[in-house]
Amino acid sequence: MKPTKVRNQQKFRAMNQTISKEISAPISKELRKKYSRRNARILIGDAIKVIRGEYKGIAGKVSKISTQSNSIAIEGNKKEKLKGDKVDVYIHSTNVIITALNTNDKWRLKILEKKPKSKIKSMKADAKKENEVKSTSKKELKTRSTSKKENESKNGEKK
After folding, report:
1. Within this chain, do residues 52 and 109 fall inside the same structural domain, yes or no?
2. With 14 labelled, which of 57, 89, 135, 158 sits at a CA distance of 20 to 30 A?
């Protein structure tokens, strides 16, 4: 079977949890510095800015999420149909950037503030380097103090 066919079957048969994970977007530079990650899952209530496509430049809060088409609807962004009805415009999640996160959910905050594995490894390496520097400086201090004591004892003997 072709790989594309297998992939499509996997997407069709996937659980809601897996499908909702796919609806994510990159986060703004300020949020990157704060949470030390590049992207996050989009939830209702997040502030979004459209960066690509027909609706480029539009900003607002997420009002609806469509898991079938991996797209989101922004509050106030509506399209008028021929009959006069107003319908939400859905924008694909890859065309937006998250400018502010909805922080009402404590579980989401816990996940966002968790350090990525690469950061943890680098932090451990830095800690090891600091310990090595401290241990070498302690050894130098000990050798200096012993040499000072020896010099003092020699000076005392000469007098």
Report:
1. yes
2. 89
